[in-house]
Amino acid sequence: MKLYFAKFISVIFHPLIMPPAGLLLLFNSGTYLDFLTWQQQRAILMIYFTGTTILPLTTIPMLMLHKMATDLRMEKHSERVVPLMITVIFYGFTWYMLFRLNVPGLITIYSLTATLAVFIVALISIKWKISLHMTALGALAGTLLAVALRFNVNLQLFMSIIFIFGGLAGWARLSLKAHTPSQVYAGYIMGLALAFIMIYNH
Questions:
Q1: Cβ atoms of 139 and 191 closer than 8 Å
Q2: Of 163, 146, 193, 192, which Cα lies nearest the Cα of 13?
Q3: Can you give the residue range of the structural domain that contains 47?
Q4: Contacts for 30-37: CB closer than 8 Å, 24+ residues apart
Q5: Using an 8 Å Cβ cutoff, are 147 and 34 in contact?
């Protein structure tokens, strides 16, 4: 039962789901993004969801077909490099599209931060298996913390929930023996620090 729950946690907090989830939180963060109409928010979200979730997922079957990945989990760190670099291209293109569409700066810097986070994880994965789940959740926590301080908005509820989710995801990855404690901690700290620095100083 414990392992089934850990697998469930790993699925619902998948790294490819976290970026659009974070964008939804930004739309409800009490910042100037509140002035966007629902139609504008929906259009931005669809572009971002397609570029950061749908397109990266479509490459997995192709990589498995060419034996560049054994399965969706990609348990070996060496298997992650090519899929992550492809994901960086998708993320980068998504950032460029949003930049060209002249969307609010907070959204473009958020998109750029996600792109840099995946690129850094890809480089690390050449030698070491840092946790993608924890990087994504750490980046989300860092984003909310930076937004709360930068724009003086109250995001305590969102932040509390995200910190709890981070703890659950870390427990799940350790329970499944998918990562060592150092890989979990490193992923979370790296994601949090990168997002905070990028967004707070934008």
A1: yes
A2: 163
A3: 2-200
A4: 30/151, 30/153, 30/154, 30/155, 31/106, 31/147, 31/151, 31/153, 32/104, 32/106, 32/151, 33/104, 33/106, 33/107, 36/104
A5: no
- DSSP code of residue 179: S
Predicted confidence (pLDDT) at residue 20 exceeds the cutoff of 70: yes
The closest of 199, 196, 178 to 13, measured between CA atoms, is 178
What per-residue confidence (pLDDT) applies to 66? 59
Burial of 185 (0-12, 13-18, 19+ CB in 10 A): middle
Cβ pair 105, 150 in contact under 8 A: no
CA 93 to chain CA mean position, Å: 16
Identify the band that residue 123 occupies on the pLDDT scale cut at 50, 70 and 90: very high
Chain centroid offset of residue 142 CA = 11
Token pair for residue 20?
């659009």
Ramachandran angles phi, psi of 155, nearest 5°? -120, 25
Is the pLDDT at 16 greater than 70? The verdict is yes
**Contact of 18 with 139, CB cutoff 8 Å:** yes
- 171-188 confidence digits (pLDDT tens): 999 998 888 999 999 999
Question: Global pTM?
Answer: 0.92
- Overall domain count for the chain: 1
